[in-house]
Amino acid sequence: MNVLPAWSAGLGLGFLVALPLGPIGLLCVRSVLRNGFLCGFAIGLGATAIDMLYAGLGLAGVGRLLDVQVLRTALGLAGAVVMVYLGVRSLRSAFQARGAIDTEGETVLPWAAFRTALTATAANPATIGYWAAAFAAATAANLTGTLSASLGMLIGVGCGTLLWFTTLSVSVMLFRRWFTSRMLQGVDLLAGVGVIFFGGVLAYQAVG
To answer: How far is it, in rounded angstroms, from Cα 48 to Cα 30?
Structure first.
């Protein structure tokens, strides 16, 4: 079976799933504005790693475990706590008068940004269920009929996710020079409120 259609489908899925400006996108924007392109790219790498992991788990059928109510609730609440923590940290930056580059409690180093993205992306275990459904649809469409095709689609998911975050980081970097300290605080505020909101939605879904 030709691997290219499976890879192309994965590329599109990875890009489209990452496209909405959710909590990880907000963290990426503020990281680029405060600390430069490499931190935003590292956020993208972290998100890509977890997306590929969850897509692999979905491919392996692990998504069925989320049918267990207790497990789904526990994972959802744990993810909500992580989201709220990251949001509060961003709000703390917004309400403190700082310059464009923060050196205390901020994801200054790319490795720290990568770890933050790993934690924040992994905080939404429901993503496993999404990828399980995506790979089920791909199987029905005969895109993942062989191991090589499945791996091709999995790699495509990673390429699509990383492509979006790289595009986002480059775009934000182009406008970074025009952002004042006040505007950066506004981005911190928006990111903090947004991430906390997503954490609340995750908690509601977990107990609902």
So the answer is: 18
What is the overall mean pLDDT for the chain?
A: 78
Could you give the CA distance from residue 206 to residue 208 in angstroms, rounded to a whole number?
A: 6
Structure tokens at 102: 């923060």
Residues 6 or more apart whose CB falls under 8 angstroms from that of 168 comprise 25, 28, 29, 32, 40, 44
Q: What is the pLDDT of residue 80?
A: 78
35 within 8 A of 107, measured Cβ to Cβ: yes
User: Rounded to whole angstroms, how far apart are CA atoms 142 and 56?
Assistant: 17
Per-residue confidence (pLDDT) for residue 180, from 0 to 100: 74
Say if residue 164's pLDDT is above 90: yes
Pick from 91, 168, 78: which is nearest to 119 by CA? 78
DSSP state of 66: G
Residues 6+ apart with CB under 8 A from 176: 32, 33, 36
Between CA 105 and CA 110, with CA 107 as vertex, the angle to 5 degrees is 150
